[in-house]
């Protein structure tokens, strides 16, 4: 049996989420936008799920729009406000950076700020570069590759002082670390990062923030997002958001840090989510290591970019060279990771790494 240590790529589906989805996959198959009784029942399931996600977010006034995932939500947030100037960070997810690049081709000014060797942006730099006339500032809460937590409340404060909206990709942080929702104008979420199903996410939009429709058609989501919603996916998302407590990763982090003491940590040791451990070891070929340790599922970085052949822009932004990036691995653990299996997995990884040296 494979030991799973790739929680940043996706998380195991919670039994509660699977149970919530099951009726809407079997006999309760109606379209939630149909006016008949079965359709109204399906619509009620969608609205219950919406309430569950909103409750998990907190009590800020705003609307939650279901999407196909966080990539769609980020695209909508960046494209839907007709931004004239966007400021973002070099370590953002590709769905933000690539969208910003596309917008630059449409005439939008885009300023991508560097980060320090610890992966954190300098707030003085943010102060200097978020100038009046900036429409939108985008910053990720928890980095998907290195787990670093950005000071998003402070970044948002600067954005608002300049009259800009603040968008937060909270995919890796939602349900794991405190989300300063009061500081945000738009927030992207993804169900499969919190033990829900793949194929559904959400964009939370603060009351009073106007967005143009992103998908045109039937206008099912508040007239702004067209497409038939899946009651099953929404129900699974809602049940996952309602899971009690956050994943207790502190004991796992301590075990991993001790076991991997011969490796160097990528990114800040303090300002980070401790369920993400990104490490490097000189002389190790990460791709070969992943191939050789077949009993453990772990990665060398973002699953979203692994098929593109592109080197990690996040590790490059930290100042790491190609050899250092190629010797880096990411270990992700959480709610369903056992201490004994973690120790076993780390032993297998270390043994394989030693054979390469």
Quick rundown:
The chain has 357 residues and is of the alpha/beta class. The protein has 13 helices and 12 strands.
Structure, explained:
The protein is built from 13 helices and twelve strands. The protein has 357 residues and is α/β, with parallel strands linked by helices. The chain folds into two domains: 3-12 and 246-356, Aspartate Aminotransferase, domain 1; 15-241, Type I PLP-dependent aspartate aminotransferase-like (Major domain) (Aspartate Aminotransferase, domain 2). The strands form three sheets. Strands 2-8-7-6-5-3-4 form a seven-stranded mixed sheet, sandwiched between helices. Strands 9-10-12 form a three-stranded antiparallel sheet. Strands 1-11 form a two-stranded parallel ribbon. Helix 1 packs antiparallel against helix 7 and helix 8 (250-259) runs parallel beside helix 13 (339-356).
CATH superfamily label of the largest domain: Type I PLP-dependent aspartate aminotransferase-like (Major domain)
**Total number of helical segments?**
13
Residue fraction in strands: 5-15%
Which shape, going by the Cα principal axes?
A: globular
CATH topology of the largest domain: Aspartate Aminotransferase, domain 2
Unreliable stretches covering 5 or more consecutive residues: none
User: Share of helix among residues?
Assistant: 25-40%
Query: From the 3D coordinates, which CATH architecture of the largest domain would you assign?
Result: 3-Layer(aba) Sandwich
Q: Radius of gyration in whole Å, from Cα?
A: 21 Å
Mean pLDDT: 95
**How many domains would you count in the coordinates?**
2
Oligomer: single chain
């Amino acid at each position: 049996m494979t030991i799973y240590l790739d929680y940043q790529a996706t998380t195991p589906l919670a039994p509660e989420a699977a149970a919530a989805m099951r009726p809407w996959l079997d006999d309760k198959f109606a379209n939630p936008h149909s006016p008949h009784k079965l359709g109204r029942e399906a619509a009620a399931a969608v609205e219950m799920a919406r309430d569950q996600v909103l409750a998990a977010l907190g009590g800020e006034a705003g609307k939650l729009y279901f999407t196909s995932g966080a990539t769609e939500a980020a695209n909508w947030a960046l494209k839907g406000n007709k931004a004239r100037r966007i400021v973002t960070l070099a370590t953002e997810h590709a769905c933000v950076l690539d969208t910003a690049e596309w917008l630059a081709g449409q005439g939008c000014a885009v300023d991508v700020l560097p980060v320090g060797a610890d992966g954190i942006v300098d707030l003085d730099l943010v102060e200097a570069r978020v100038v009046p006339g900036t429409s939108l500032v985008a910053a990720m809460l928890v980095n998907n590759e290195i787990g670093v937590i950005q000071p998003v409340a402070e970044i948002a404060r600067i954005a608002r002082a300049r009259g800009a909206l603040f968008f937060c990709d909270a995919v890796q942080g939602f349900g794991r670390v405190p989300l300063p929702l009061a500081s945000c104008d738009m927030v992207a979420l993804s169900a499969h990062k919190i033990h829900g199903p793949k194929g559904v996410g959400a964009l939370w939009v603060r009351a009073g923030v106007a967005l143009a429709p992103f998908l045109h058609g039937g206008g099912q989501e508040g007239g702004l997002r067209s497409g038939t919603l899946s009651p099953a996916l929404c129900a699974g998302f809602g049940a996952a958001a309602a899971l009690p407590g956050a994943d207790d990763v502190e004991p796992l982090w301590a075990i991993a840090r001790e076991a991997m003491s011969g490796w160097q940590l990528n990114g800040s040791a303090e300002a980070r989510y401790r369920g993400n451990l990104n490490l490097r070891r000189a002389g190790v070929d990460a791709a070969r290591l992943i191939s050789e340790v077949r009993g453990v599922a772990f990665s060398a970085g973002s699953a979203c970019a692994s098929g593109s052949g592109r080197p990690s822009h996040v590790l490059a932004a930290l100042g790491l060279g190609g050899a250092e990036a190629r010797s880096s691995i990411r270990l992700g653990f959480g709610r369903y990771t056992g201490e004994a299996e973690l120790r076993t997995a780390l032993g297998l990884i270390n043994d394989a790494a030693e054979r390469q040296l």
